[in-house]
Amino acid sequence: MTLVMGILNVTPDSFSDGGRYLDAAAAIDHGLRLLAEGADIVDVGGESTRPGAAPVEPAEEERRVVPVIDALSRRGRVSIDTRRRAVARAGVDAGASLVNDVSATLCDVAAAGDVGWVAMHMQGDPATMQDGPRYDDVVAEVRDYLVARAAEGRAAGVPEVFVDPGIGFGKTVAHNLSLLRHLDVLVGTGLPVLVGTSRKGFLGGLTGGAAADDRLEASVATAVAAALDGAAMVRVHDVAETVAALEAVGCR
Ligand code: HH2
Questions:
Q1: Does the beta carbon of 192 lie inside 6 Å of ligand 1?
Q2: Is the pTM of the predicted complex or chain greater than 0.70?
Q3: How far is the centre of ligand 1, averaged over its atoms, from the C-alpha of 131 (Å)?
Q4: Are strands 3-9 and 41-45 parallel, antiparallel or unpaired?
Q5: Is 9 in the pocket of ligand 1 (CB under 6 A)?
Q6: Are 39 and 5 spatial neighbours (Cβ–Cβ below 8 Å)?
Q7: Residues in the chain with pLDDT < 50?
Q8: Residue bearing the CA closest to ligand 1, atom 8
Q9: Helix (H), strand (E) at residue 150
Q10: Which residue in 35, 42, 122, 136 is deepest, having the highest Cβ count within 10 Å?
């Protein structure tokens, strides 16, 4: 069965749902809806990492996510989506059982809290990562990087490690497509793989310039393709549609 991670951005500026759930009550409502639609885990983030996003003060990020994690973790599984150590710790203290770490540097926080950890690959940082990303062999480089991070996580004592190729994080459209078409290379490491394509910019480019909210079909199709290729979990905005599609192909 492929797990579904539902996206909940408590931010003013996320590329797709920015500003919709900045209020804690609205965010909690949406998170409950994602759980009701079949999400196995709700991923709560308080900082946009879209290309060119401005960094947020950790105290502000923490203020956004903690009440939401506290409420939702009583009703289902929650992850904290952050690259900041203090925010990851606060998220775990509030009830998150997975640290979704786009910086792949926080395995010690996950180990200390005895919770899971997602190590994601990113070239550069969000402010500049789309300024001419370069690889000799993107598939092999991402695989080698993630295998090393997973070994670090296991050595630190993290009980559950996922790896994520980081679609759109310092990658051109061609790099993203190579990673998706050769997902078997990452799956072949034996590590559980998380894939996040939902509503991302490269799908707009591939579908005639569709705006973020008009990328449903492309988002569901790429999530299903990743699941069929062996992804353990997909990270999506549109939980109900993705769950239905995964059921249709026998992945749920
Ligand atoms: N993508 C985003 C954020 N966090 N985490 C993982 N593990 N994998 C991803 O692909 C990933 C992620 C970016 O998407 P989103 O949260 O929708 O937007 P924003 O960063 O603008 O808040």
A1: no
A2: yes
A3: 18
A4: parallel
A5: yes
A6: yes
A7: none
A8: 196
A9: helix 138-156
A10: 42
| H/E stretch holding 91 | helix 85-94
CA distances to 123, 165, 183 from 141, rounded to whole Å, are: 11, 10, 13
Domain count across the chain: 1
- The Cα diameter of the chain in Å comes to 46
Expressed as residue numbers, the domain containing 135 is: 3-248
Contact between residue 193 and residue 167 where contact means Cβ atoms under 8 Å apart: no
Please provide residue 84's backbone torsions phi and psi, each rounded to the nearest 5 degrees: -105, 130
The set of catalytic residues is 200, 235
The Å distance, Cα 196 to ligand 1 centre, comes to 7
Q: Which numbered atom of ligand 1 lies nearest the CA of 11?
A: 22
Side chain identity at 1, as an amino acid letter?
M
User: Are β-strands 233-236 and 98-101 bridged in parallel, bridged antiparallel, or unpaired?
Assistant: unpaired
Pull the structure tokens for residue 209: 């310039």
Q: What are the tens digits of pLDDT across the range 72-84?
A: 999 999 999 999 9
The pLDDT value recorded for residue 127 is: 85
CA distance linking residue 83 with residue 101, whole number of Å: 5
Q: Is 50 in the pocket of ligand 1 (CB under 6 A)?
A: yes
Q: Is 90 helix (H, G, I), strand (E, B) or coil?
A: helix
